[in-house]
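Help needed: design a sequence for this.
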């Protein structure tokens, strides 16, 4: 990347487009391009994840968990690789972690819009607010695993709250 492609140490739009649309890993890491959104890219990436939950949950339970673990491991590789290419750890446009986080958040709720919306809102709340230990993981764990793990913990917080809510309904 040349100097005109950088803005305060972050890659410019041209460099981002080259990474996102220049390789399958960039395209996936940026949530099929949703991470390029100038407004709330993490939220946009999470929105893109919603339709996929129907296909994932249609799988037999053991297959679902196997696929979700594979998607997490793929995310470690994708996010780490794309982050290195961009020269920015956990660039805001890398949203594969939000996608996997949402899929985990919605893993235990009925496939009904109120529950899927609750999973979306709670997951985004925890991912944005980053209460302990999410913020510490976000700051202290590096590489692709670091990019992915804070979203997994945000998803686990979401799962716990949704489990409590489901016990009342």
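Sure. Designed sequence:
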């Amino acid at each position: 990347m040349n100097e005109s492609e950088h803005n305060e140490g972050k890659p410019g739009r041209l460099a981002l487009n080259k990474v996102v649309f220049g390789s399958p890993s960039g395209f996936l890491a940026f949530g099929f391009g949703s991470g390029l959104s100038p407004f709330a890219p993490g939220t946009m990436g999470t929105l893109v994840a919603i339709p996929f939950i129907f296909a994932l949950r249609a799988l037999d339970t053991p297959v679902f968990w196997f696929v979700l673990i594979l998607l997490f491991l793929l995310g470690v590789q994708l996010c780490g690789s794309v982050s290195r290419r961009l020269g920015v750890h956990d660039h805001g446009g890398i949203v594969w972690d939000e996608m996997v986080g949402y899929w985990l958040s919605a893993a235990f709720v009925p496939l009904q819009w109120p529950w899927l919306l609750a999973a979306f809102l709670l997951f985004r709340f925890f991912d944005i607010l980053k209460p302990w230990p999410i913020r510490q993981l976000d700051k202290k764990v590096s590489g692709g695993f670091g990019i992915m793990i804070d979203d997994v913990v945000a998803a686990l917080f979401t799962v716990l709250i949704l489990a409590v809510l489901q016990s009342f309904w």
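The longest helix spans residues 61-86.
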